[in-house]
Amino acid sequence: MSDLRELYQDVILEHSKAPRNYRELKTANHKAEGYNPLCGDHFTIYLDLEGDAIRDVTFQGTGCAISKASASMMTQSVKGKSKEEATKLFERFHQLVTGEANGDRDSLGKLDVFAGVSEFPVRVKCATLAWHTLQAAIEGKQDPISTE
Ligand code: ZN
Q1: 126 C-alpha to ligand 1 centroid (Å)
Q2: pLDDT for position 2
Q3: Is 0.85 surpassed by the pTM of this model?
Q4: Tens digits of per-residue pLDDT, 42-78?
Q5: Beta bridge partners of residue 50, listed in sequence order
Q6: 146 and 35 Cβ atoms separated by less than 8 Å
Q7: In the chain, where the domains are located
Q8: Residue 123 burial (CB < 10 Å; 0-12/13-18/19+)?
Q9: For domain 2-146, is the CATH number 3.90.1010.10?
């Protein structure tokens, strides 16, 4: 049986307390805002896209430990990747947190710590908010996105 202690693994707690890339990005040429009204998570993702490449990505905002750690680790995971690679990574991450991962978990690297989220469906929106917001930023959507 998974329990909450297992969900909030050390690495998740550590990222939520000291999030990486937590700042406004002055060189951003794309940004998007995302809300998760169920939990109150609210983040802005700043993106520096050069052609197809994610040159830099940062975030700011407030949210629960899961959402903040997910945003922090997402910025680390997609920086330097292409838009297509980031989208594929999100697909695999989404499968992981919804319990549909099919043996391709190695490619997720550190993001694998979010596997426990699949035991807590209400937390899936927390874990995926930053990723949805990143997609909106990549696509240049103007309106804030919501998980509802
Ligand atoms: Zn949350």
Answers
A1: 4
A2: 54
A3: yes
A4: 999 999 999 999 999 999 999 999 999 999 999 999 9
A5: 53
A6: yes
A7: 2-146
A8: buried
A9: yes
